[in-house]
Amino acid sequence: MSPAAAGRPRDPAIDAAVLAATLEVLRESGYAGFALETVAARAGTTKASIRRRWPVRQSLVIDALASVVVTPPAPDNGCTRCDLIQSVRLLAEALHDRLPGGVLAPLIAGCAHDADLHRRLIDVLVQPSRQAATIAVQRAVDRGDLLPDADPELLVDLLASTVYQRALFGDAPLDQDTAGPLVDLLLRGVAVDFDRLVWISQQPAHARERH
Question: Which of 45, 73, 75, 100 could form a disulfide with 49 if both were Cys (CB 3.0 to 4.6 A apart)?
Fold first, then answer.
């Protein structure tokens, strides 16, 4: 978040009101219709006050989105296929259910000119879910379910690319019916024994530790 003006302490109540109002306006008007004047009126403050806290609107939007994005735990179901499907669904949930629709693509474009803004967007909105999925994939490699030379970060990028493609271009989000085939397509290329992973995923959770 942008530092406060020198000598002027931040008021957490105003910050919270501005972030909540920002989300409301984004959901109602989208990124193109987003106006600081509207946010200020709803938050009970002024446009100048918002500008002192967030000099550029992209920074304000990133902070508002960050307030509703939850850092997920790394899936750990004792089942590689289940973990990867859950990872895909967690990422899809973050992009489709928590973020206002139609905001991500123009926000990415709006941050492209500023390396610091772009880095903050990635750190706040992309890295948490990506890191959780990477841990799950590394765990699968370590227990011998995936080929030993499989690159966890590259595998996560392959899975996430489909999720982001749908989020950025407005396709239907990935659900249980579509996340499974996506994961299976990838696993057929990197699994040591794909049929075994499918069989394990169909077993009760209490029985998976034996396999």
Answer: 45
